[in-house]
Every structure is written in C-alpha cells, then in structure tokens.
C-alpha cells in the first residue's frame, strides 16, 4: 500500500517525503525501518523522531515541531493512535478462516450451527447448543450442552465452555480459558466437605474479551455475569456469582472471590485480589497487587493489602521507609529525656 | 415436585402456605420467585424473609420469628443449608452422561476400562491405564500412560493427567487442570540450568476436587500427595513433593512451592503463597494473600507477608496507619525537648 | 544395574559395602531402601546418613566422615548432585514415544514435518508450520499456522501455540501452556475499549522450558522473546513485548506486564509481579511475592511491594514489628515531657 493510500484510509494528511512510496508493515518508532509506518502519539517518545527510519509516521499537529528526518512522510491526523491502529489492521489483515465445519469435529445432533462458521478439528459442540453467524470455534475447543454463542465470536483452541453458558456477540475467548466450571463452595458436615451443587451459569455480554487460561466459574444458583465490552486478561480467577459491569478492565492474574459487584468502567490492575461480597464502584481504580477486603467507592483509587485510599497508603509507605531512622531518634529522645529528668 | 414432597425428601416439616404447590427450581432468598424454593440459614439474611416471593423456604426453628409472607411455606428443619442443598440436587439433577466410549476417542490397546463409563470425543487414554466404574473422561481430556483412575470420577474437558498419576474414587478434576507435569528443578552447571529429571508421580486420594487450570506437579523421586476429601480451587500451583493432608481447603491462585506438608483440615485462603519445605499444622488457617515462609502451628491463624500471628499482624497494620501522624508528633517532641534543654 | 556399573556410568568410586549388588531405582536419603541409590549433597542432611537403608549413596569426599551403615556402598564423586541426576536418568529412562504421526491427528497440507517425530492423537498442526527432527507434539496440542518448531522439542498434551510463533531446539512446553495469545491492549474511545491488533509473535530460543498453564503473549508489533536456556514455571503470565534474557529463572505464578527487559541469569522467585517497561538487571534476584515497579540493578536483590533493596526492606519490616510497642513508649514520653514542662 502506498503512503498516500494509507493516509486516506486512516484519515491523515501526508506531509513531507515522498508519499508515493510503498508501506509493507507497521512497527514502533524505535525499530521501524524503510517501507514501514510508525506512530508518535506520546510526547515522551518525541526524541526518537529525529532518527526515525520509517517511511511514514502518524502524528498529531501538536507534536509537529522539532527535527524531522528528510525522507520521512508525516501523516498528520487528529488521533494518531487510532489512525495507526487502523493502519496496522490494514497492513496485517487477520487471515480469514475457511467457513467450514472440520470433518474431524464432533457436533451433537441437536446443536444448531449457522452456515457461516468455522469449526476446527477436534472441537466439539454439545447437545442443544447454538452458534451464530460468523463465529469460529477453533481446534480442540469444547462447547458444552445448552450453550448459546452469538455472532462473530472467536473461541480459540482448547478453550472450554461448560454447559448452559450464554455468550453474546463479538466475544473473543482465548485458548485455555475455562468458562462455567463449578464455583468453590462446600459445607462442612460429619468431618467432610460436602459439595454445594452449582446449577447456575455464566453470562457474557457482547464485545467481551477473555484472556488465555482465565477461569470464570458458574453461579451457584443464578449467573456469574460479565458486562458489555469488559476486557479480562490472562490467568484471572472470577469466582461464582460475581457481577462484572460494562467496560471493566481486569488485568492479568486478578482473583475475584465470589458474589462481588464490579462497577462499570472500573479498572483492576495486575494481580489484584477481591474478597467475597465486595462492591467496587463505577470507574474505581484498584492498583496492582492490592487486596480489596471492603467496598470501594465509585471513582476511588485504592492501593495496598488491605487496599485503602491510594494517597493514604503511600503516605504510610513513605512513613514506614523512615521508621528505622525514627527509631534511632526515639532512642536519643529517651536519653535526652532521662537526662532532663535527672 | 410438590412442596410436601420436597419437604419429605429433605427432612423438613412444612408450615404455613399451601404445601401442595409445585416447586420447579431453587434460588437465593433475594431473587426467588413463585414456584421456587429458597433457604434462610444465616440470621443476617433474615431481613429478606418478609418480602420473600418464593413458594417455600427452608429455615431452622431458631430463625422462625418475625414477619412471614402469607403465601410462603416454611420448611422447618434442623440443618437448612443441607436440606436446601438436597433440594437443589433434586430439582436440578445433573444430566446423566451416556455410558459409552465415543468412537472419536483414542484408547490405547492396553488400557483397562470398566464397562460403565463415559469417554467423550477426542479424549485419549494411554497405555496400561485403567479407569473404574462410573467414571467420566470428558471431551479432549488426556489420560497418560500407567494412570489409575478409580470409581465415579469426573475428569472434565481438556484436563491433562500425566503418566503414572494415581487417582482415587469420587474425584472431580475440572477443565484445564494439569496433574503430574514435571516439577521446577534445575542444577546450575557450566553456565546452564540442567533439568532435574522428575520420575515421581501424583497421588490423589478419594473425594478430592481439583479446580480449573490448577497445576499439581509430580514428585521428583517420590509422590506429590493430595489427601482424602481435600478441595482445591482454580489456578492453584502445587509444586513437587508437597503432601497435602485430608480435608484441606486451598482457595484460588494459591501457590505452594515444594516439599511442604499441609496438615489435615488446614485452610489456605485465596492467593496464599507457601515457601519450600514449610509445614502448616492441622487446622491452621492462612488468611488471604499471605506469604508463608516459616512453619505454622496447628490451629494457628496467620496473616501477612511474611505471615505471622493474625492478631500481631493486625496490630502492626493498625500501628502503621497511625505512623504518619506519629511522625508529626515526634517532630513536636523534638522541639519541646530542645526547648527544655535550652 | 549393579552398583559398580552405576558408579562407572556416573563417575564415582565405590567405597565399602558390596558393589556387586543391584540397584533398581533412586530415592531421597530419608526414604531410600535396599536396591535403591540415594545422594548426600548437602551437609544439613548428613544426620540421615547413619540410618540410611539405601544400597548406595553418592557423596563428595568432604562429607565422608561420621557413622556410615555397614551395608551401604558410598559412591564418592566430585559432584554428587550431578552424578545422582545421571543415575536417576539411567535408572528411570524416559519412555520412548513411537516415531509416528497418529492417524487421529490433523496435519495441514502445507505443514512440513520431519520424519522422526511423534504426533499424538487429536493434535493439530496448521498451514505452513514446520516441526524438526526428534520433536514430539502430544495428544490434543494445537500448533497454529506459520509456526516453526525446532529439533528435539516436546510439546505436552493440550498446549497451544498460536500462529507465527518460533520455537528453537530442545524446548519443552508443558500441558496447557498458551504461547502467542494476543496481548492485553486497548484504546478507550467513544465509551468503549478498542482492541489494539496484535500482529507480532513469540520467539523462544533453544533449551527453554515452559511450565504448565503458563501464558506468553505475542508482541503487539514485534516479538515477545524468551532467551536461551531460560526456565519458566507453571501459571506464569508473560505479557506482550517482554524480552527475557538467557538462563533466566521465573518461578510459579509470576506476572510480567509488558515491554519489560529481564537480564541474563536473573531470578524471579514465586508470585513476583513486574510493572510495564521495567528493566531487571543481569543476575538480579527478585524475592518471592515482590512487586517490582522500578528498574532493578544488575546483581541487586530486592524484596517487597513495591520492591526495594532486600536489606532495606527487611529493616523496615523489623521496625514495623516493633512499632506497636514503640507507640506505647511514645505515649510515655509525652507524659514525661509534659511533666517536665509543667
């Protein structure tokens, strides 16, 4: 694709250099070479622009000053990140999977499959399940019984969807994710843990993405819910009966016990833990590695284990760093006091 | 099922309402509707009873006072949790899996399978392995060579059991769990990490449940053992040569390094880490997100990282919260002292 | 195998006992019995030697004094750990997998497979992928399109290698590991998280081992790299664009966000977290459960969350333990001060 074409496709104005040159691929500003397009969207990377070897670079007008290599065509646009993202997609199109059901797949008689789907080898679809138009179930994935999968979903290899799960449209589930296993609940009677039957399910709304090897347990009686547009990273544990709002971000290795409510737009950074029955408010931010044992207000930013207001937690941390020295000082006080008292 | 029938089945006495009404399903006290049964087992949910729309509710005599909706049939019993659990099972029976070996499974010649089992499509069973009566190996699960699986086990889709694992009766292993992978051990020689061969195995006793995507490594020479009735949640890492006692509870995302001994009835809450060669005593409780680096006494309750006695740790935490303020006070002391000294 | 033969094979000199006795297997010094060989490599286990029931024991000259059971043949050698490791391999040889492609595997037309390989049932290999001599792809593993796998690799059951991954020689990938899933990146526009396309890949160099259920995400544009000889334990999350050096050790449940650089020979103990764009220097050691938010110097040893110099962190910890008592003391100071002031 020529620079000109790419610019037009991505809503940018070429400026400088030769916009008739071809672009083959995309790269970041530090490693891009000739025939590549890159992006400058953050002022802190501006220092790399003067030595940039890319043929073209998306940039906002605000970042346009400074040294620009002679051969570089700037692609001036309003939102360089989004224009570049469009360019990446255009230059590296996702390979289309053939629309077919592998003869090596196992489809139950009562499953209802749309015509326009891809089912890979060794994938299996259970009784009474349905899969919508444009969806893909990759090699080795298991779709249980009575599962509903909407349109344009992609279930990657070896993911497992247990019985009765409901999955909306445009949902991506990465390899090894386990949707709908039993929650972890027992009653201790007569010297043994008696399993609480889990007869609920998992409901995943549209536009959700679920990372590799993430586990989302079914509800005990009702549903575990993941709201519209929420994104969940790899190796996350989401226990039974949690309710995750819309556009929530849950980063890698978070663990959410059970019966929690995570408000719309909340962000849980990496390895956050949340205790049972906790409510996390709308747009709250829980910083990395925090352990949340109490409700978090909407918009709050919390940190630590147990998590508290970020600034309070940091003040404590700063104080702790001074504590060894403070203890020395207090010893001196003691002698000064004693001296005065004598 | 009629309320009367359910009551009889679950050892409860109907009281009030019309016990000839039908019940279709079970729900929690806040969301239950007509034709549903619910339970009140914890005084803190008692406030929901007066607006409860369920047709029937299991309850202990001790919780019987207060406003009760006119149409609600109380099901008075000794242990409402267990009675309700029985009702859930009766109303939502687990679908029976056909007793067959899928023609799309791969069973080694020398494998010994009982007649009364279910093996799903794309499951494979290796050489010299045996599977007992009533057990299920679901779609895509891999049973290695020389594996013994007892009676009435359920191996969920895409779980993997490595060679030589021994699994008792009534064991549930959820999807994606990996039983018997090599432990993590190397010797550093000549500028490289030389792999320690792992020739031990994993032994899982009766009535154990293992969560989705949990990993239990084989012993280096001997066995990694999980004792009778222990329950392990999702995404847990259990390293080589650990010995887990009976009726132990290990919650999600715990990590137990290696060669540890976890005593009978111990509880490890979510995301607990345990260092190598640590002993955790009988019925000890390790609270969530603790890091255990030293032995824990039987019956002890520990918290923190490194974990210590729960009360001691909390006192430290409370003190830390006051530290910033304390530092202010100490500054004032300093001036007061200096003033006195002058 | 006779003790004499084992000694010769493993570079040891038999001393005492009857070296013509047979050895069947290996065990640790505390549990070894007759016909077993064991090892004493660490002085702290020396106390077990006098009651050792093994037929033979590898030991270094330095540990040779003290009571030695009459029937025990010592196998004196320079490096008992390595000699024993050789003995374990000789006594417990890994079973050879038949060199064949299962008729129940799915191999794309354009895949290029060496003759001398094992592909298990329900494994699948995508278009344009190649697998080198001596490699094994076990049951149910999925190799995507355009994947390169070198020689003598072992891909365990149900592991998944996404498209375009490049894997060197002698690489072991355990069950359930997911190599090359999309990184976790979104741009928030118009009230939704827009997915950043991930068109990079994962490159794994020779002699790497990857644990069960570990996830290594592909680069957004470039590659996520794992250097020569590095060893990664189970349930580790390695995000997009990380660069892991040579001979790095990453223990179970670590989480490394993205775009980090981990220097050669660095060690990350269990459950360590590393924030985006952090550099960890050569041979640095990050102790268990630390959260690293800033660069770590080469050779440094850090601990805590946020991680800091190990000794500094421990001093703070020790001070914190004394804080509750200190607060009592400060109260007393206050009264003493007030008294003096009056």
Automatic annotation (TrEMBL), chains A, B, C:
Residues 21-87 form the UDP-3-O-[3-hydroxymyristoyl] glucosamine N-acyltransferase non-repeat region domain. Its EC number is 2.3.1.191. Keywords: Acyltransferase, Lipid A biosynthesis, Lipid biosynthesis, Lipid metabolism, Repeat, Transferase. Pfam families: Hexapep, LpxD. It is an enzyme of class 2 (transferase). InterPro entries: Hexapep, LpxD, Trimer_LpxA-like_sf, UDP_GlcNAc_AcTrfase_non-rep. Pathway: Bacterial outer membrane biogenesis; LPS lipid A biosynthesis. It catalyses: a UDP-3-O-[(3R)-3-hydroxyacyl]-alpha-D-glucosamine + a (3R)-hydroxyacyl-[ACP] = a UDP-2-N,3-O-bis[(3R)-3-hydroxyacyl]-alpha-D-glucosamine + holo-[ACP] + H(+). It comes from the Bacteria. Homotrimer. Catalyzes the N-acylation of UDP-3-O-acylglucosamine using 3-hydroxyacyl-ACP as the acyl donor. Is involved in the biosynthesis of lipid A, a phosphorylated glycolipid that anchors the lipopolysaccharide to the outer membrane of the cell. HAMAP family: LpxD. This is UDP-3-O-acylglucosamine N-acyltransferase. The lineage of its organism: Bacteria, Pseudomonadati, Pseudomonadota, Gammaproteobacteria, Methylococcales. The gene is lpxD.
């Amino acid at each position: 694709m020529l620079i000109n074409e790419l610019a037009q496709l991505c809503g940018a104005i070429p400026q400088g250099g030769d916009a008739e040159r071809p672009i083959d691929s995309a790269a970041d500003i530090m490693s891009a070479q000739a025939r590549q397009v890159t992006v400058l969207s953050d002022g802190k990377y501006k220092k790399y622009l003067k030595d940039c070897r890319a043929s073209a670079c998306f940039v906002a007008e605000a970042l346009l000053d400074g040294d620009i290599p002679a051969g570089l065509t700037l692609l001036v646009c309003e939102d360089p990140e989004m224009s570049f993202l469009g360019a990446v997609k255009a230059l590296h199109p996702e390979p289309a999977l053939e629309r077919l059901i592998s003869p090596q797949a196992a489809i139950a008689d009562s499953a209802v499959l749309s015509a326009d789907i891809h089912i890979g080898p060794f994938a299996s679809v259970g009784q009474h399940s349905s899969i919508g138009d444009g969806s893909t179930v990759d090699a080795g994935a298991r779709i249980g019984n009575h599962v509903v999968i909407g349109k344009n979903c992609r279930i990657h290899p070896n993911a497992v969807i247990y019985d009765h799960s409901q999955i909306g449209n445009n949902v991506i589930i990465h390899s090894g994710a386990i949707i709908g296993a039993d929650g972890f609940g027992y009653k201790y009677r007569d010297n043994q843990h008696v399993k609480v039957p889990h007869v609920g399910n998992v409901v995943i709304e549209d536009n959700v993405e679920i990372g590799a090897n993430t586990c989302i347990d079914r509800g005990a009686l009702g549903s575990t819910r993941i709201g519209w547009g929420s994104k969940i990273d790899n190796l996350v544990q989401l226990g039974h009966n949690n309710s995750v709002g819309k556009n929530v971000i849950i980063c890698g290795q978070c663990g959410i016990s059970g019966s929690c409510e995570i408000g719309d737009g909340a962000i849980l950074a990496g390895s956050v833990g949340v205790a049972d029955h906790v409510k996390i408010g709308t747009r709250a931010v829980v910083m990395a590695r925090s352990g949340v044992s109490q409700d978090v207000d909407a918009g709050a930013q919390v940190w630590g284990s147990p998590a508290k207001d970020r600034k309070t937690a940091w003040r404590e941390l700063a104080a702790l760093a001074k504590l060894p020295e403070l203890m020395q000082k207090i010893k001196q006080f003691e002698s000064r006091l004693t001296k005065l008292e004598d």
